[in-house]
UniProtKB/TrEMBL annotation:
Keyword Metal-binding: yes
A GO CC term attached to the entry: cytoplasm
Record's protein name: L-rhamnose isomerase
Entry's localization field: Cytoplasm
Organism: Agrilactobacillus composti DSM 18527 = JCM 14202
Main function: Catalyzes the interconversion of L-rhamnose and L-rhamnulose.
Keywords, in A-Z order: Cytoplasm, Isomerase, Manganese, Metal-binding, Rhamnose metabolism
Reaction(s) this enzyme catalyzes, per UniProt: L-rhamnopyranose = L-rhamnulose
Pathway annotation: Carbohydrate degradation; L-rhamnose degradation; glycerone phosphate from L-rhamnose: step 1/3
Amino acid sequence: MVKTENIDKAYEAAKQRYAEIGVDTEAVMKQLSKVKLSLHCWQGDDIHGFLFPGQELTGGIGVSGNYPGIARTPDELSGDLHEALSLIPGNHKVQLHAIYAVTDKKKDLDELEPEDFKYWVDWAKQEKIGLDMNGTFFSHPKVVDNFTLASPDKSIRDFWIEHGKRSRAIANYFGEELGQQSVNNFWIPDGFKDNPIDKATPRLRLIDSLDQIIDKKYDEKNTIEAFEGKLFGTGIESYTVGSHEFYQNYAISRGKIWTIDAGHFHPTEDVSDKFSAYFPFGKGLMLHVSRPVRWDSDHVVIFDDALIRITRSLVRDNELSKTNIGLDYFDATINRVAAWIIGARATQKALLQAMLAPIDQLKKDELNFDFTQRLAETEELKSYPFGAVWDKFCEINNVPVGLDWMNNIRQYEKDVQFKRDTKNSVTV
Ligand code: RNT
Ligand code: ZN
């Protein structure tokens, strides 16, 4: 166990060091406690959901690993989410996918209603958290030849349009019931493995489908739609209908939100450079914080350079209030609850480090073309004692400090996760 007196001593010293450069650690901790992360429910059960047991995962996304303790029921998944939330400082949100509906009779994606999510709303009320939404446009027989909303087949499009409309009614219900806006994220897997002849028409079909979905007006206090592009996916390497430019333009022209998934770009692209180019035109941003590794876009988020660049841009350019930060990755080679905690805590640490900087002073140096000062200062800042402030932040938010949260996980595995009968699991 990390000793309280050591946390406090280190924090007092850190507070002084930051005060010397004009940074108020108390104010920064307050600022950090206001940033909500949206935890992605699908990390807990390898994106299976509850609507279609045994359904194969499609859409070019894949989960590898078979660490014991996967959640198989709504109670197991919500219990695991509760465990994760209790080990992450602050108050957060959870993002659901349509396939996580809890229904008494079998229902298809074009039949879902708000009441099919009552289970989650009741749970969210207990947890005092908000819910975000995602339509599920994959892992379903009506994804035909990698096409959904942009399919040339009208009956396929109509099925998915209806699903999109239903997802909006559900997100609106989340907002109404929980008193905070529910972001409804749209990602579709449509595209071609090999070079298409016609790159234009599928995009026009997608616009038409999306326009039909968003036709009905909902109060934005309750819900707003976000649209997520991708460079490519496995199986659609040559052409993605919903590319980044497509959705950025779509979101701007329709007064909606653009989603940037940090794993969806070419590896040398700096995602953090995109926010300030978008915000003068766009209403808001949804982030899927993820970590690309070679061809995979969904490794567990860690405190790496790409993440630090993202949080620095959000903080320095004052974009946090217009940005919804969600997590999106899946790893079944490690404890799935720990995966949530590692990614969430890494994101918060990166935000904290970005906030612990004399930003106004740095901006002045830049305005004065004092690039020497700017570079020297930003380099020194990297080894300032932000870890001591992070520990204090955990302490005052009543979550374990340092690695202590792993004791909770080891206990939770023993008491809960390892007792689950994996023989009955749909992943076997
Ligand atoms: C896929 C997108 C999408 C999914 C989730 C499960 O490439 O990133 O956000 O990961 O909807
Ligand atoms: Zn994503």
